[in-house]
Amino acid sequence: MSLVLPVSEYAVDEWRSEGLRRSVQIGAAVVAVVVIAYLGYVVLRQEKGPSGGSTPSTMAELPPIMRNEVTITCGPQIVGARGDLFGTSLNVPRWVGDAHTAVDWDSRFLGATEDALREHMKLVGPRVPLRFGYEPFDGFFDAGGKLVQGYHWRDALADDSAEMSIDEFMGYATRVGAEPQLVVNFGTGTAGEAADLVAYVNGTDPADPMVALRRSRGRQEPWGVKVFEIGATPWLAGSAGFDRFPDSPGGSRDPQALGRRQTEFARAMRARSPVPVKLFAPITSWDLSSYGRTALRRLVSLTAPDVDGYAFHFDAAAEPGQASEKVALRPAFLGERLVEFSTILTEEGGGKALEIAVTDWAGSRFPSAMGRNWLTGLALADSMLVMADRGVSRLNYFAAAAAPGDPGGYSYWLGGDPQSPAPTLVTTQVMARHLGRELIETRTAGVEVIETELPGGGSARIPALGVRCSKRDYDASLVVVNRTSKPRQSNVAVEFRVIAPIQQTQLVAPTGADTVDAAVITYQPSNKFSIDLPPYSVTLLLIPAV
Q1: Which residues of 114-126 are buried (b: 16+ CB within 10 A; e: fewer)?
Q2: Which of 307, 443, 464, 465 has its CA 20 to 30 A from that of 164?
Q3: Per-residue pLDDT at 188
Q4: Fold of 84-434
C-alpha cells in the first residue's frame, strides 16, 4: 500500500498554528520554546513554487546531506500500525486518609492533578488507557511471615476502608476522559472474586447480585470496562513464601500450575460479562527470565485458548544509580525479547492472534528512584519506538499520579504540582504528536552498532539510534533517538513529495535533569537533508507530504 496523505486547502496552516499553540511549559519555570518561523506564512497557499509547495525566502534551510554519514530513509509504503502506547496507571489504590469519609480529595490525593491529567488525555487521546488495581504483593509474605492480602475490591467498598473503591476509580477515569483498565487480585483473590468484579462493572442482569450491589450504590448503568489483567507480577515466584500457595502466580515453578489458575480466572471472568472483554495474562519478566523459554511455551499452549494476550512489565533502570548508557540501551533489549516472545506466540498459540502489552512501564524497579529525570524520558520515548515496531498493543506508564509523599507516584508532575511537568509527561505529549498510527517504510544505513552487556550475562549488539517513520493525520513524521553520550549526525531522505515546511522538535537535557528543553524550528521543504543528534536526545520531524 502506498502512502497517500490527504491535504485540505487549510490543513497545512491548521497544522502550523496548532503546533505553535502547543508550546510546552516545563519545570517550575517556563522553559523557552524556540520557534523559528517564517514571515507571511498565512499566505502560504498563495506563494506556491513550481511543484505546488512553498519556498519563502525568510525561512531557514535544512543542512544539506553529507558524505560518509548515516542515512535514514522514509519510504512511501505503509508497513504496519502501532498500538495504544500513551496509556498510564494510578499507583497502588491507597487513600492518604484513614477512610473514604476522611479523605481530602483536592489537596491530598488525585484532585490536585485531575484537571492537568484531563488536559493531558485530550492531547494524547482519544480514550487513553488508565490502569487501576495494581498490587505487586498480592499473596506475598513479608519479612515477618505475614501474608499480604493485596487489594480486595469488595472490602474497598466499605466506608471505613482506606482503599480507593472501584466506583471512585471509575468516576475518576470518567472525569479525566480515560479508558478504564482493571487488574484483578490473582495472588490472594479467587476466580469467583474476579468474576464478581467483572459482573459489577459490566453486568446488566438485575438478578445478578453484583448488578444489584452496583445499583444499590447509585450506579444504574454498567461502567463498561473492556480490558482486564489477570493479576500483576508472576516473577515474584522467587520468594519462598509462595510455596504455601502452589497454584498462585508465584507459587510452584511448574508452569502448568500457573496456566491452570490463569485459565480458571479467564473463563470465570468472561462468563460474567454480557459484552466482549479483552483479558491479558501477566506471564514473565520482560527479559523472559522468571519463567524460561521452555516454561513460556508450555504456558502459552495452555492459556492461549482462553486469553487475548500477555502482559509484561518493564523497568527502565534495573537498579538505583545505574549508568546512563545502560539505562538508555535497555529499551532495545526489550525489543529483542519481544521478538523472541512473538515467535513463541506464533508457534504455541494455535493460530490465534494474541496481543502483547507492556502494562507497567516504570522508571525504576525501586520506588525511591522511580525516575523523574530526562534519562527516564529518553528511555520512554525509545520504548515507544521499540513497541511500535514490535507490535505491542498497549503501554501503561507507571504512574500518572498517586498520594503526595508516595515515592512511586506523581511521576508525571514533580511533587504533584500540575505546573511542574516531569520529562516523562513532556515526552509522552511530544511523542503522541509525532508517532503516527500508521507505520511507514523506514530504512537505515551506516548506524553504529554498540556491543554491550546483557542483564544477567552475555552481550548484545545494539544500534546507536532508534528510528521510526510514520504517518499522522496530514503529516509524515520521523522520530530519531540518540541512545548514546556521543553527538551524531544523519542524512535524511524522504521518498515522497514534501509540500510544506518541515517542523523539527528536539528534546535534550542532561540525563539527571528534572526538566527538558523543547526546541522547535521550522525549515523550508526538502527531500534530502541532514540533522544533528545531540547526546541522549530525541529529534522529531513533522513532514507535510503526499
Answers
A1: bebbeebbeebee
A2: 307
A3: 78
A4: TIM Barrel (3.20.20)
What are the pLDDT digits (tens) for 243-271? 344 444 444 567 787 888 899 999 999 99
In angstroms, what CA-CA distances link 105 with 11, 117, 407, 421?
A: 42, 15, 19, 20
Pairing, β 475-482 against β 537-544 = antiparallel
pLDDT tier, 221 (very low <50, low <70, confident <90, very high otherwise): very high
- Spans of all domains in the chain: 11-81+437-544, 84-434
Which residue, 85, 225, 233, 101, is CA-closest to 169? 225
CATH architecture of the region 11-81+437-544: Sandwich (2.60)
Residue 537: all three cell numbers together: 536526545
Rounded Cα gap, residues 307 and 422, in angstroms: 35
Q: Which amino acid is at 267?
A: R
**Cα end-to-end span (Å), the chain:** 14
448 close to 436: Cβ distance less than 8 angstroms: no
In the chain, the percentage of residues whose pLDDT exceeds 90 is 55
Report d(CA 334, CA 448) in Å as an integer. Answer: 19
C-alpha cell at 245: 500457595
